[in-house]
Amino acid sequence: MLEVKHLRFGYVPGKDIMKDVSFTIGKGEFIAVGGRNGCGKTTVTRLLMGLETPVEGTLYYKGDDITKLSPSERGRFIGYVFQQPDRQMFRPTVAEEVAFGPEQLGYTKSEVKEITEDALARTGISHLAKSYPPSLRRGEKQRVAIASALAMKSQILILDEPTSGQDGKETREMLILLEELRSAGLTIVLVTHDMEIIASHCTRAIIMGYGTKAFDGTPEELFTKRDDLYELGLTKPPCVELAQSVPGIGYCKSMKEFEERMMARREAL
Amino acid sequence: MERGKDVAKLVYTHVQGGQFRWVTVSTLMLALGTILHLVSPSVAGVTPNWTTATYCVAIHLTRPTYRQSVGIGLVAALINVMTSKSAFPYGNLFSEPAGALTCAILVSLLGRMGSFKLGKLELLPFITGFLSTVASGGVFVTILYWVLGLPTAVYVNAMWPMVLMVSLCNGIVTPLLYVPAKHLFARRGYVTDKMGTTDSHEGLIITPAHDAKISIEHFNYYYTKATTPAIKNINLQVNEGDFLVVTGPAGCGKSTLCMAMTGAVPKFYGGRMEGMVFVNGKATTQVEIPDLATEIGVVMADYDTQLVTMTVGEEVAFAMENRGYSPEQIKERSAAVFKQVGLEGMEERKITSLSGGQRQRLAIASVLATDPSILVLDEPTSSLDPEGTAELYKLVGTLNREHGITVVVIDHDLHAVLPYANRLVLMVDGEIRSDADVPTTLRYMYEHDIYVDALPSIFVTYLRLEAAGYTFPAPWLSVAAAKKGLTSVVH
Amino acid sequence: MKQLVPFTKIITTMAVSLWAIILHTPSELAVLLIAELVLLAVTGLLHTQYKVVFTLAVFAIFLAVVQYIGGGTLESAYVTGLRMLCMTMVFIVLLATTRLQDLTAALVTQCKIPYEYAFMFTAALRFVPDFITESKAVQEAQACRGMAMKGNIVKRLQSYGSVIQPLLLKSLGRSETMALSLELRGFGNKKHSFVAKVGMRGKDYAVVIVLAVITVAIIAYSRGLIG
């Protein structure tokens, strides 16, 4: 669906942050983008969105070349949720805030209303439609930002570290929402530091490192087969580490799975 | 001097304080006005005078005195001169104070007559925006006219119409800025009405029942106009050398408790308190906030807003300059603090060139400048990544263990802070549910199903496996401890 | 220039501006202007601040043209342009060679401006770069939601509103924390000390005396008592 070919990028001419980056993103994937700070994990998503222009390389969406499209044009099919959601909020109610996107795209008033209600319902914040955005909690603000992106009818949702600074409950609820959206057909691309989330929720991990795409595969491959995790700025999540110190348990993608297998082992003994 | 009363029976009310709102709102609005020139739209080459618009909004919001308004105008002029936006500095140095004074006069005279409304639109900001710009623009062109000897025809037929056009633009943009601003202020409760009483505990002898660094006794707190207490009968002692972590679900009152330790509750936020909070044996109601701050330093979650100077060195010196320390004392303390925090050699660095983690270190350093023996951190990790979080707690742990500073941290990211803590307090709905060492409180949270999402996942697994019949030599407070426990069970 | 304290430079600026007002023929003002340009060149500022000098020159020429078109004589046009340039260029020396903390210390201790206002001045300047970064981030976020800076004037105004208003709300939200933080750090105390040393020294007094002599000379000259 979204194809990237031989991207090369650097802020300063001559000094590349990344080169020869190619990958394809399909429908319904849950992709984590990770790597050390400064290796370009956020930059590569910004290139996808058009917030930066590549020095070399092309991007295709459903076969069409989108390399020259601006972010506002790409907003029709890619939604970007920034790390700090209150940077974009300025309308007096949540509903009006979410309506901003479709209004910019030129939908009629009744279409905008329908789209807004749908987006609010899908993110579970219909009850906040009349609330004042600055007074919401961080997790709720994030949902408003996600609803704003959904209201643009995007097929791909890119989120930049959405769970940073949130407590366990908000993180858990956010991931449930993202999983719901994914099973409804959206592709989720998550820039994250959180190894536990990568292991437990993502179907695929793209790790940026060594000036290019260092890894592209399943989290299981990443955490069990690669031995340069430290150089890539990653660590094994606790569930993988603990599972590896108990012979015979196999790869566990979450602490829950680890517990279940340990308890089954107990029964067996 | 009255005899000491029973601490549990003490009551203290205070109106909402905060005497520097006019300073901070004006500062931030003028900074905003400066950059608005960069994103400003223009109609036929005429742009609004954003500087005037922003200080008009600031004056509307905070109602400073006439003297303060003239000062705000002067600051606006100085900023324009400094950022090379002033074509003729002498003009600005007189015109902006004139504009600010006009705005202040209009706000105090017309504001008293109730609000003017044309349907749903508020007219007052339009009027003040327009007239203040007429005043400041008029003074500016008049000074140009006098000093440079321009022809009267130019003055009357070209300059004044320009002034009127810009004033019209300002009349339009000022309400566009003021209305959302006022809405925010009202919603957040920043609007100060000085109604209400303020008690005084001067002359009372109040002694703490416990000899601790911080002793909170029978403490209840009601925000102004609230009927239910935000804090219910809290008793808590923090001893010297403790590393205390306070956690709990959102809205449980942990930030309020933190503010109570600094005296900001109730003096800054306003409200009624019962019982007392003692810091180093002194009652917080009997000490002024700045004096208390020399003994207990607090770094708030938004540490970036606490940094108000241009360079690192100035920031650390700020709290000391304000209190009149001599330059030699300031140099000495600064050097000591830089060493403690690990920022040596960075005195001349500009704050805007620092990363988030470095800025937070700087906030901690500037708070340590007055050598407090207690450090309070309110949700320090909310904007840090895992690497930054680890580094932060390493620093705080060092301050606690090697420099003997008593630490109180409010956080919900428990797995990063617990290796350093010796006590964990759980608060729910304004009450303390558990106050014990770390494993005990964690277990309490799990067994009573309170705020379990904050529990480190490793610890939850440990409890569940224990319940399933496994026995481990020690609780799993870290991955290393867990691995040790597992190897002992597996082999 | 760096060896003089800010107060001396402030006095110099005012003195030069005063001379520019007293002198009233193009040739006299041209002499003053050349003296200023020489000063700038000697201190190396002409090289680094040429953009500012250029902008001021453009504005001065503009005013001169306006003067001429508006009915003034050619001579008065020259006077206007030259006087404007003389009075504003001297600020470059003051601002470009003085550290901000020294300037604020001088404003408070010697110009008797209350500390609160000097603080507001530096604090606002400290936040300006952060706000610039913030405004770029807001523009990006709104661009991703379909906002494009094109279209008719109403649409463009709306677009600007969507960038300005989040900035406004965010900055106001911080004012409360900042107000509390200032109280905690003892702001507003009457006894304020300064690390920066800005007291006048020998060289400074010498310069001030020279300025005073020149001022008297110029006044006398303009009254026809000399030359």
TrEMBL record, chain A:
Gene Ontology MF terms: ATP binding
Domain ABC transporter: 2-235
UniProt superkingdom: Bacteria
SMART domains from the UniProt entry: AAA
Pfam families in the cross-refs: ABC_tran
InterPro entries assigned to the protein according to its UniProt record, in alphabetical order: AAA+_ATPase (IPR003593), ABC_transporter-like_ATP-bd (IPR003439), ABC_transpr_CbiO/EcfA_su (IPR015856), ECF_ABC_transporter_ATP-bd (IPR050095), P-loop_NTPase (IPR027417)
Swiss-Prot/TrEMBL keywords: ATP-binding, Cell membrane, Membrane, Nucleotide-binding, Translocase, Transport
CDD domains: ABC_cobalt_CbiO_domain1
Family recorded in the similarity comment: Belongs to the ABC transporter superfamily.
Protein name, per record: ABC transporter ATP-binding protein
Species whose genome carries this gene: Veillonella magna
UniProtKB/TrEMBL annotation, chain B:
Subcellular location: Cell membrane
PROSITE patterns for the chain: ABC_TRANSPORTER_1, ABC_TRANSPORTER_2
Domain ABC transporter residue range list: 216-454
Keyword Translocase listed: yes
Topology within the bilayer: Peripheral membrane protein
Full protein name: ATP-binding cassette domain-containing protein
Keyword hit for Transmembrane: yes
InterPro entries found in the cross-reference section: AAA+_ATPase (IPR003593), ABC_transporter-like_ATP-bd (IPR003439), ABC_transporter-like_CS (IPR017871), ABC_transpr_CbiO/EcfA_su (IPR015856), ECF_ABC_transporter_ATP-bd (IPR050095), P-loop_NTPase (IPR027417), TrpP (IPR031360)
PANTHER family: HEAVY METAL TRANSPORTER
Species: Veillonella magna
Record keywords, A-Z: ATP-binding, Cell membrane, Membrane, Nucleotide-binding, Translocase, Transmembrane, Transmembrane helix, Transport
GO terms of molecular function: ATP binding
Origin superkingdom: Bacteria
Primary localization: membrane
TrEMBL record, chain C:
Signal peptide (from-to): none
A Pfam family reported for this protein in Swiss-Prot or TrEMBL: CbiQ
CDD domains, per database record: EcfT
Membrane topology category: Multi-pass membrane protein
UniProt entry tagged with the keyword Transmembrane: yes
Superkingdom of the organism of origin: Bacteria
Key words of the record: Cell membrane, Membrane, Transmembrane, Transmembrane helix
Localization per record: Membrane
Predominant location category: membrane
Protein name: Energy-coupling factor transporter transmembrane protein EcfT
Source species of the chain: Veillonella magna
